[in-house]
Amino acid sequence: MEKYRIRSASPIDYTMRTIGGKWKPIMLYLISMDINRFGLLRRGVYGISKQMLTKQLRELEADGLITRKIYPEIPPRVEYFITEKGYSIFPIIDSMQAWGEQYMKFDEEGNVI
Question: What fold, for 2-86?
């Protein structure tokens, strides 16, 4: 039975802690599509608060998946970019998108059910 035990420090656990949750995969996808400024991300991620967006961006940056560039302008402009490590996670995100496209269902009004 011991060989089937999954440790909490497993590679799957690490991956889920890095990109898991409701927002991070969506944010990574949007940033990769050049929707990389705070206001654009906030409009692109339905239902996220400013505080949660800030927290998730900081976590993605701390994990090395994105980098932040601050432009010395008035007012300051900040843009986020996917790092090499961040792009390495895209096969997982692409698989999530393909799975969703295959199984997502809609009602008569076009809402996801």
Answer: Arc Repressor Mutant, subunit A (1.10.10)
What is the pTM (predicted TM-score) of this model? 0.82
Report how far residue 16's alpha carbon sits from residue 64's, in angstroms, rounded to the nearest whole number: 15
Q: Of 109, 86, 70, which is closest to residue 32 (Cα–Cα)? A: 86
Query: Would you mind telling me the total number of residues written for the chain in this entry?
Result: 113
Identify the three-state secondary structure at position 68: strand
Q: Write down the domain spans for the chain.
A: 2-86
d(CA 52, CA 28): 15
pLDDT for residue 85 = 97
Burial class (CB in 10 A: 0-12, 13-18, 19+), 12: exposed
Note whether 19 and 28 are within 8 A (CB): yes
